Amino acid sequence: MKPENFAWLCRYLQENTGLVLGSDKMYLVESRLMPVARKHLVDGLDALIETLRSRRPRELERDVIDAMMTNESFFFRDGKPFEQFRQFVLPRMLQSRATERTIRIWSAACSTGQEPYSIAMILKEEEAQLAGWKVDIIATDISHEALARARSGIYSQFEVQRGLPIQLLIKYFTQDGDRWQIVPELRAMVQFREFNLLDDFGPLGRFDVVFCRNVLIYFDQATKASILERISRIMAPDGLLYLGGAETVLGVTDRFVPLPAHRGIYGLAAEMQRMRFAAGA
Amino acid sequence: MKTCLIVDDSKVIRMVARRILEELDFSIIEAADGEKAMEACRIRMPDAILLDWNMPVMSGIDFLRELRKMNGGDQPVVVFCTTENDIEHIREALQAGANEYIMKPFDSDIIQAKFAQVGLL
After folding, report:
1. Considering only CB atoms, which chain A residues are within 8 Å of B107?
2. What is the largest CA-CA distance in chain B?
3. Which domains are delineated in chain A?
4. Which of A179, A196, A225, B3 is at 20 to 30 A from B20, Cα to Cα?
């Protein structure tokens, strides 16, 4: 690929998705975009980029963005955050929202759906406590292809063996050879939407819990700060934010602060200050 | 160091599993069938057992049922590792006292994930 086409693609991806590609990622671009060039019957990557630059065909744009996104995800990824959700976040929400009996959860950049379905499984396991409650799980991703897989709820034998306890596999999946599909009842608990994290979050509504794990790592500092700032505006004052193990708010934004004793979970700084003041008073 | 008994009639599978589990800091004992596995457990009960289903002399499921009746046989964490990949076999294994279930083919990520889930890592 010509250096000027690679540079244009990097700018294009950053402006349209936030994704930052280092100059050492040429090999990644080539391996991911060659299948797209073949699909669109374009002769090589330079021709592909030039078509994108000159005409921007919608389907080609979508396929290029889909191909460049990293869609690795596991059920109950890293284990601990989901234990915290069951043992700490959910009881806290059940207590604080006992009057309205509504909880809204956002799985931002949900990829192929393992995160929102993991949340749905926990909610199903705790359904006795949730009788009469309305719990919305909104799961969004920029990748059309990843969302299509997420909606289908179909996973390979390999995917269902990384992080998913066997008891939950036989309870919440049906088997078709070496493919496993989430049962319809659980699929119906998650609303999937195509959504770009660079866009206005307003239309998504207000959330009590936001999972934004392992996505900020792909963005530059300004984009990270912008996303966190915009999340802070759509969160309930006592809402909670999850980030990935390699992500932090420190040095990025002062809107959120880490929750003491709950690694990876963040609360709004203003609310935490109010609680400290109330406790002190 | 925790001990893991690998029970499989395939020498190659035992070798691959041994390599993965030694990397995870387990001390390994091997057995080629359920009966040899019973003998190993009578000498010393391991912390974990990675168990194949179809083996000559004594199958994995028969071994597991016998193990759970033994004195101290409720202690080891048993992870099936088999080509019997249908829900009925998984249910049967769990009813017999298995703690987790790996469907072959497996790799180091799957073994690590499953062992972590059952608290062995």
Report:
1. 158
2. 35
3. 3-68 (1.10.155), 80-278 (3.40.50.150)
4. A179
Among the partner residues B87, B106, B113, nearest to A163 by beta-carbon distance:
B113
Do B103 and A161 make contact, defined as CB atoms within 8 angstroms? Answer: yes
Tell me if the bond preceding B105 is cis, omega within 30° of 0: yes
User: Within 10 Å of residue A234's Cβ, how many Cβ atoms?
Assistant: 18
Three state DSSP letters for B11-79:
HHHHHHHHHHHHHCCEEEEEECCHHHHHHHHHHCCCCEEEECCCCCCCCHHHHHHHHHHCCCCCCCEEE
Tens-digit pLDDT string for chain A (281 aa) = 899 999 999 999 999 999 999 888 888 999 999 999 999 999 999 999 999 999 888 899 999 999 998 888 899 999 999 999 999 999 999 999 999 999 999 999 999 999 999 999 999 999 999 999 999 999 999 999 999 999 999 999 999 999 999 999 999 999 999 999 999 999 999 999 999 999 999 999 999 999 999 999 999 999 999 999 999 999 999 999 999 999 999 999 999 999 988 999 999 998 877 777 776 65
Which residues of A lie closer than 8 Å to B, measured between beta carbons? 74, 79, 157-158, 161-163, 165-167, 169-170, 175, 178
Q: CATH number of the domain at B103, please.
A: 3.40.50.2300
Number of domains in chain B: 1
The answer to whether residues B41 and B73 touch, using CB atoms and an 8 Å cutoff, is yes
Chain A environment of B89 (Cβ under 8 Å): none
Tell me how crowded residue A110 is: count the other CB atoms within 10 A of its CB.
Answer: 30
A165: nearest CB among B86, B102, B117? B117
pTM for the full predicted model: 0.92
User: Which among A157, A162, A167 has the least Cβ separation from residue B113?
Assistant: A162
* Parent domain of B15: 2-117
- Residue A105 phi/psi, 5-degree rounding, is -120, 135
Distance to chain B for A82, nearest Cα, Å:
12
| Pair A91, A179: CB distance under 8 Å | no
Closest residue of chain B to A172, computed from CA coordinates: B87
